[in-house]
Fold this sequence. Notes:
The structure holds 2 protein chains of 2 kinds.
Chain A: H1 2-8, H2 13-34, H3 44-54, H4 67-83, H5 100-107, H6 109-122, H7 125-156, H8 161-170, H9 179-192, H10 204-207, H11 217-242, H12 250-274, H13 280-308
Helix pairs in contact in A: 2-11, 2-12, 3-11, 4-5, 4-6, 4-11, 6-7, 7-9, 7-13, 8-11, 9-13, 11-12
Chain B: H1 5-16, E1 19-24, H2 30-38, E2 51-52, E3 61-65, E4 68-69, H3 70-82, E5 88-92, H4 94-98, E6 108-110, E7 120-122, H5 129-148, H6 154-160, H7 162-200
Parallel strand pairs in B: 1-2, 1-3, 3-5, 5-7
Antiparallel strand pairs in B: 4-6
Amino acid sequence: MVALFNILVFPGFIFLGVYALLFEFLDRRIYARLQNRMGPPWFQPLADFLKLIGKEAVIPAEADKKVFPALPIFALAAVTTAFLYVPIWSGNSLLPFSGDLIVVLYLLTIPTLTFFLAGWYSTSVYATVGSMRALTQLFSYEVPLFMALLAPALLADSWSISGISQFYAAHPLYILINIPAFVVAIVSCQGKLERVPFDMPEAETEIVSGTFVEYSGRFYAVFRMAIDAELVVVAAIIAAIFLPFFTANPVVGFILFVVKTIIILFILAVFRSVMARIRIEQMVKFCWKYLVPLAIIQIIVNILLKGVLPL
Amino acid sequence: MTKTFIEKAIDWGRRKSPWIIHFNAGACNGCDIEVVDSLTPRFDVERFGLLQKGTPRHADVLVCTGAVTLQTRDRLKRIYEQMPDPKFVIAVGTCACSGGIFDGCYCVAGGIDAVIPVDVYVPGCAARPEAIIDAVVKLLTALENMQKGTPATPEQDDTADVPALEEIENAVTEASAATAAVSSDNQSADSATTANQGGEE
């Protein structure tokens, strides 16, 4: 019963859905305020979701009838599963085990792969271009993001997100060592979330909406929900690893979680509003030329410091 | 004919989140500029949940400008058929409403309603952004009346959308007042410089 409650209500499906809608609203509101306008009302993401649920869902005649409707569900399921391993109310997540950092990172790769397959199985030209870009982008941001998240894990000598969070809560000053990794993680996670400046896969002005061109109705609603939920999960992981908890009280811990993830969201929203889209080959160049070396230096520094610092 | 809670929620979502796609069926670009203008931060249509979408699969409202030429007739029909139900059409500008001065031309099929059914007509050459936003609000009010089973008569539309229209006008006057203040500063600076020049002469 408790397990079912955990999976379906808190911290699983329903909580993640509500929090994802709240995040989309905050993102759009901050974006609007930075453009000197009012922005949408608080219920806007919910209205969008309900409207898309109620709309006719078109499956193109050329598309694969089985894979096309299944892909959004895969994306949402992978993201929701990843959320179970992220600490929310204290240093411990719901089901921590050694190595869950790796599992969560690979679970978060599944949505990108479903975006690729969504574009591929739509058989639309725009969608195919978008899906090729999604894969190209995957190969450029994934390496710096993984290395930036593994560097703190090396210093903490733990491969679970909860373990890393507890280590840095016990040694608060060590957070300062990881600031370069934090910067790398923030920049490269925008590639994962396909946000400006790395939104080439769904560049509206050149390839219409990229991989989602043919998606409509409830399929698109689930995809949007998966993207919003991915934003929550990525913000929560970055918050757990780089800004750990300092409390054992679950209520205070939960409030801290909300505050920390909203700070990360604010940084991402500011990036989105001040930047313009760059070209795909500029992004590959930028990620491999600057972000990867920075992450490698961070890993080397952390390995060296591990021998020196009292742990 | 009572609706369940879920149907009511979906009806509410439809009223609150009209996503538009803009199609130029052969306009002179005057109305297109005004449609783009109404999407700028100054008018901020995202307050009503309006978003511009690139693909007809995501859109609810087709905003059409210009008289339909024989070249675009089939494309317009195809874009309309690609949109999932329920869908609405707004004809922006005199040419889109009736064909305008191009009506009867050898290459023109007529207004938008010669090809696809139109829900709201916005006359004007070119239609102002306020008029376009008002058309969207009118469409949503008519939709609400339709959902509640009352007929969408013009009288009801007018009374129902007055607060929304006033809201827009207030926002626009505030914005223009702000710009007017800035420009009057500039003007006073200009007049000061001209006065100086006059003194030198």
